């Protein structure tokens, strides 16, 4: 019996509970991350949607921002969704003065680029390498990727990247945890398991 990967979910603000449910349904163990000590021994980390400036402020207050930055730069597989994508971005085009990010992905983003809460929508997305047909993307106050840089674009919507990957870091402009579809969480668990085993994930037969 394979050991289930241990995935931390940043739990300071935002939709962390929904990610916990999705990850556990996909076969992971989970740990809520609120202190830097909670990062120890993780196979992966999820940074959920929420309010990016509030999340950054809370991470700084709890001494987590630099600890997470170091963990991600050291190769900890990381999935950021919505606000999590903003935190992982190298450049925030409309960021507030002194707004920090993790500088983990070579992308430039705009916060709430698709509009406010009333402009939320769903769209069927073709995700590279994902079997089983299109993925139901749930967009809520989603960021826009203005420049995908050197990242691999996994999915686009109306010509704009909405899912990217660079090494062991993935970021989605939408909310897979609200879709009822576990395929992207399972893909992230494969990435985390492959990193733990010291080799890249392989396709299942």
Structure description:
This protein has 205 residues and is α/β, with parallel strands linked by helices. It has a single domain (6-196), classed as Rossmann fold (3-Layer(aba) Sandwich). It is built from five helices and twelve strands. The strands form three sheets. A seven-stranded mixed sheet has the order 2-1-3-4-12-11-10. The protein has a three-stranded mixed sheet with strand order 5-6-9. Strands 7-8 form a two-stranded antiparallel sheet. Strand 1 (6-10), helix 1 (16-25) and strand 2 form a beta-alpha-beta unit.
Task: Provide tags for this entry.
single chain, 205 residues, alpha/beta, Rossmann fold, 7-stranded mixed beta sheet, 3-stranded mixed beta sheet, 24% helix, globular
Structure described in brief:
This protein is 24% helix and 29% strand.
Report the β-strand fraction as a percent range.
Answer: 25-35%
Shape: globular
- Which fold does the CATH topology refer to? Rossmann fold
Biggest pleated sheet: 7 strands, mixed
Any idea what the CATH superfamily is called? Class I glutamine amidotransferase (GATase) domain
Number of domains: 1
Q: Count the strands? A: 12
């Amino acid at each position: 019996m394979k050991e289930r990967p241990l995935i931390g979910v940043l739990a300071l603000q935002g939709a962390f509970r929904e990610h916990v449910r999705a990850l556990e349904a996909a076969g992971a163990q989970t740990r809520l991350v609120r202190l830097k000590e909670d990062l120890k021994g993780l196979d992966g980390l999820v940074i959920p949607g929420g309010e990016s400036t509030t999340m950054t402020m809370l991470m700084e207050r709890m001494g987590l921002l630099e600890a997470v930055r170091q963990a991600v730069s050291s190769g900890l597989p990381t999935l950021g969704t919505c606000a999590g994508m903003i935190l992982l971005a190298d450049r925030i085009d409309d960021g507030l003065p002194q707004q920090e990010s993790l500088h983990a992905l070579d992308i430039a983003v705009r916060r709430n680029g698709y509009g406010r809460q009333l402009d939320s929508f769903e769209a069927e997305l073709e995700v590279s390498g994902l079997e089983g047909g299109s993925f139901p993307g749930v967009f809520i106050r989603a960021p826009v990727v203005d420049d995908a840089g050197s990242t691999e674009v996994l999915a686009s919507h109306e010509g704009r990247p909405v899912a990217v990957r660079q090494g062991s870091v993935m970021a989605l402009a939408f909310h897979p945890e609200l879709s009822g579809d576990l395929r992207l969480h399972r893909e992230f668990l494969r990435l985390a398991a492959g990193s733990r085993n010291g080799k890249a994930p392989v396709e299942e037969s």
